[in-house]
Amino acid sequence: MDFTRRGVMLVLASPSGAGKSSISRALFEDDPNIALSVSVTTRARRTDEIEGKHYHFIDVPEFERMRAAGELLESAEVHGNFYGTPRSRVEERLGNGRDILFDIDFQGTLQLYEKCRADMVTIFILPPSIKELRKRLDRRAQDSEGTIEKRLRNARLEMDHYREYDYVLVNEDLEDSTSRVRTILASARLARSRFNELDDFVRDLQEQIDAL
Ligand code: 5GP
After folding, report:
1. β-pairing verdict for 72-78 and 81-86
2. Residue 64 and which of 3, 41, 77, 153 are 20 to 30 A apart at CA?
3. Can you list the domains of the chain with their CATH numbers?
């Protein structure tokens, strides 16, 4: 039986450098039904980032305008910059049964829990070791040494929140972690809360019994 379903809000959270972006990229490559929720940010664009693909880069007054106008589903300050999720695209995709991946921090996740828990499945990704985390941050070399230190300190704080997530993955191997995320997503797609037509379907079955 094919019912139409609501989309899944898949939240991937992790300290920077734990491998979240690589997992998301791998997921998008072979699954056309999931797309990234492109956040707005007031952070400066890195050289390898594309406006509209990785983020919408905006200034602080525009961020404040959007937040005041209720255009952001959630928002937070991370590493001294503002980030937020534009509301309109999320609602449209979910209604059409398309899934969305959110790369947001714990503050944003908690705000989304308040508003749309039934639509969400959340995964916290941990690095296998701090040595590995540091290596990934150094390799990225996008940020100055000061920023890397700040991100490591922030990683420590972020890790306090792992219990707030439905699943926790230790990302030792990219392929293995991606496959686990695919499994979680496949199961979330089948959850009862996704299927609005079930009430009618069950009522109809019951009426058929009553009519016997
Ligand atoms: P980065 O500057 O490295 O791209 O992201 C820094 C942190 O901000 C990451 O932990 C990322 O998950 C988080 N982040 C990115 N976009 C959003 C957003 O729209 N909302 C929230 N709450 N966090 C975000």
Report:
1. antiparallel
2. 153
3. 9-192 (3.40.50.300)
